[in-house]
Amino acid sequence: MEFKERKSIYVQIADYFSDNILKGVWQKEDRIPSVREMAVQLEVNPNTVMRAYAHLQEAGVIYNKRGIGYFVSPGAVKELKAMKKEDFMKQTLPEFYRMITLLDINIQELTEGYEKFLKDEVYEEEC
């Protein structure tokens, strides 16, 4: 995982977990890697991973079984979709609209680009 400077590392780790849950890599009641396992895998401080887990736990995405580990909450997908949709609508779309207006991109160009993305994305996931 490569981290970007514009976003806190713990938020990027939480996003990584969120994406894996939404993609079905981890499903409800699945045990997720321990804090130490993730810290080693991502080459970050365990406290950073713990902060990401705390963030996800507060959002109701994961829960802790004392002495056993962290698990995906039964309502994680629904919760994540609601959170990400709200963020997308408030943060990403306004910037997207601004850019397509500035660049005079029409709906046909957007549709073609989206169809190409879907084709490429499906291919990547099958590999």
UniProtKB/TrEMBL annotation:
<dbReference type="InterPro" id="IPR036388">
    <property type="entry name" value="WH-like_DNA-bd_sf"/>
</dbReference>
<protein>
    <submittedName>
        <fullName>GntR family transcriptional regulator</fullName>
    </submittedName>
</protein>
<feature type="domain" description="HTH gntR-type">
    <location>
        <begin position="7"/>
        <end position="75"/>
    </location>
</feature>
<dbReference type="GO" id="GO:0003677">
    <property type="term" value="F:DNA binding"/>
</dbReference>
<keyword id="KW-0805">Transcription regulation</keyword>
<dbReference type="GO" id="GO:0003700">
    <property type="term" value="F:DNA-binding transcription factor activity"/>
</dbReference>
<dbReference type="InterPro" id="IPR000524">
    <property type="entry name" value="Tscrpt_reg_HTH_GntR"/>
</dbReference>
<dbReference type="InterPro" id="IPR036390">
    <property type="entry name" value="WH_DNA-bd_sf"/>
</dbReference>
<keyword id="KW-0238">DNA-binding</keyword>
<dbReference type="Pfam" id="PF00392">
    <property type="entry name" value="GntR"/>
</dbReference>
<keyword id="KW-0804">Transcription</keyword>
